[in-house]
Structure prediction request, 235 residues.
Amino acid sequence: MTTLTSAHTTYQHANKSLPAKEALTWLKEGWQLFKKAPIKLLALSFLMLLIAGLLQALFGPVGLGVSKWISPILATFMWLAIANLAVKGKVSLSGGTLRSWANIALWSLTGPAIAWIQFQIGDMLMGAESMAALASGNIVDVPAWKVGLMMGSATPINLLLLFVPLLLILKHHSISASFKNSIAAVIGAYKPMLVVSVMMFLSVALAPYTFALSGLVLGPIVSCACFVAYERLFR
Prediction:
């Protein structure tokens, strides 16, 4: 294992020796963290989904783009809540500097970009007409597995960028450094991170079958496990 030192922190990169079962340790500790404030974390998860959903439903295609930009910002609040719960023992949305939040807003532009990739995959799976109807908020009769696969198709990208918001808001790193270090950490610990990717995929891919409850319930739990991974990989 090698280390990479910056002005802010020391990263334990090149963790290729970490076994896949390390992800189970992260999940176990993440579950213990989640149990400290399950109602508050679930309520925050519901509020995030509600805000993004209302933006999309009320403003049509334009709202869709805005919701995809806002969603990563909302997710950052979840990261802050989990981080404060881990450190201070209570759920709090405080944290970050004006500069770090500005970087979060810029980084969140990846949301519409990733959504565009999902829509291209959706076009291939369901056809452009069905995707246009979905983007407009209309109900479309398409197989649930196709919708789930489209939603889960962004998992590889989201996995590589998993630690970006944490590095931006907690370590106050630049956007470029956060991208670089997040990708390096995920690749360096690829075995357990692949297990994490399965959990991330299932939480979104099962949404069409569970009326979004998989994302609502599993999302905070998986996020707690990912925060444990962040603490282990970024010293």
